[in-house]
Structure prediction request, 454 residues.
Amino acid sequence: MNTKSVKQLFFITLLPVYFCIAPVAQAGLPPYADGQALPSLAPMLERSMPAVVNISTSTNILVSENPLMQDPVFRQFFNVPNQQQRQQQKNSLGSGVIIDSHQGLVLTNNHVIDKADKITVTLNDGRQLSAKLIGTDPEADVAIIQIAAENLTMLPIADSSQLRVGDFVVAIGNPFGLGQTVTSGIVSALGRSGLGIEGYEDFIQTDASINPGNSGGALVNLRGELVGMNTAILAPNGGNVGIGFAIPANMIMTIKESLVKHGEVRRGLLGVTTQDLTPELVNAFNLKNKQGAAISRIESNSPAAKAGLEPGDIIVAANGRPIKSSHDIRNIVGLMQIGDKVELEYFRDNEKKEVTATIGKQEMPQLAGEKLHRALQGTLLSTPLKNQVEGVLIEKIDTASTAWRAGLRPGDVIVSANRYRVRNLEELQQVTDPNGALLINIQRGQEGFFVVLK
Prediction:
């Protein structure tokens, strides 16, 4: 019997009972195989996907003109009328996650909404809503925005410290504005840092495909709980190579609390500068322990100084978490609030010690300008905080002072003095001769110029 006759016989035989077994005859896989239900992520995704939103932003930017067009003499000579600066609108797309349905709080990356004049959130059901910025943390690339809407779906938050390498995860986002897209993979590594992507790094690495439009989207476990926020990819050739990075949920929620309460992250200060242990340092210090962060500098009157820490101490644990590099201690301290306690384990001369330090407030060192140079009389100088420009900030200036007449203004930043790069007040003091001429390089917004003070 040929194939054609077999097919004909099959349908003829089934014809009398067609209505009772029709589902079995449909194309595609059956819902069960060998008595077991086929595995599917669909039920979990049906619950989770409404909590992942599309974020579109628009930013108005000034279009630069030929400098000649800004010269009044040139315009008058050629009879060119005064023109207003042209503006151009820049649009971008990203993703976000609803983490509080009652308050309408949406989590996303700072780089998705950075400098945006207008933020629009598109929900899974098609609703488009204007969003209000609650706060951002550029150092960790986290932002919280707020929408006003009913019947929102939020994702439950998992304890990301319980993640293990090999756990299955799913990335949900909106790449390229195509609509919601889902990719799956596993946790490839934990605690990735030192990548230079963000100021504070403690990434979950995954091989789930994360594309540019996925930024700010959700990384969930198989229960549909948020374990991280998709943030970056390693793409040497511009495409996905299976190395994506997500900010852990625990880190996000710590930052979120501060952003909602204060509109910013008020990071505390331990007052140490650390560096990674190299084989050369291990040999030089004659260390038995080869992992940790070596203290290279202690700020005076800082919590670290008050706790008795000294340069050369090797920090190996903080609040029970092992310290393998300087990035580890920076991340732990950077997420703590002023007044929090940090329990440190460290080695000094191969003797293990323990100490508790209280995280202090980051204060901006200030100095009256006349203490540096007589021509700076009437100015107040300070070292900006780390997330601002490097240099010495002119906070205040007397309008009757020599510095004012020389063209200095509040908000100017001294980036070099006497041809030496200066990053703080201490470096400026080292290169300044109180009785000699002072050549300073000023940064004012996007402009830079030199001023000679005598």
Summary: The CA atoms of residues 41 and 271 lie 47 Å apart. The chain has three domains: 48-264, 268-361, 366-453. Residues 1-27 have pLDDT under 50 and may be disordered. The two ends are 109 Å apart (CA to CA).
